[in-house]
Amino acid sequence: MSLHFNGLPDGVNPFDIRGASTYYNQVQSHRLALLIQQSLLEKTKLPNFGLHFSTLAICRAPQMITVLIEPGFLTIPLEEMLILTKPHKEKVVSAIVEALEQFLEESK
Fold first, then answer.
1. How far apart are the C-alpha atoms of 105 and 45, rounded to whole Å?
2. Tell me: the pLDDT tens digits for 41-87?
3. Model confidence at 99, in pLDDT bands (50, 70, 90)?
């Protein structure tokens, strides 16, 4: 599990794109990624930037479940201000923990 914050390439209007996203690269990682994305959206009220199948390096570990979590954009001024607040950080952590607990319970 890797936690990052999204950014935008040069030339993209930072007011056009917002939200949380989660990435996975294996069928066995999909359920955890989905639970995390749903929990993030519920807890943070951020827009849904999507659940994505991806070949990003962090998601390519072949023998384990992997997800990349991007709970917002640091390149968007309003999201950056939100991301830096303690209540928002607590919501992100709570969302991830709840999703992981649910995933582990379902995996028994």
1. 25
2. 999 999 999 999 987 766 566 678 889 999 999 888 889 999 999 99
3. very high
Higher-pLDDT residue of 88, 7: 88
C-beta of residue 72 within 8 angstroms of C-beta of residue 6: yes
Cα(82)–Cα(80) distance, rounded to whole angstroms? 5
Distance of alpha carbon 67 from alpha carbon 75, whole angstroms: 22
Establish how many alpha carbons lie within 13 A of residue 84's alpha carbon, considering only the half-sphere containing its beta carbon. 8
The beta strand positions in 5-90, using DSSP E, are 20-24, 48-53, 67-70
Contact 106, 28 (CB under 8 A): no
Architecture of domain 17-106 in this structure: 3-Layer(aba) Sandwich (3.40)
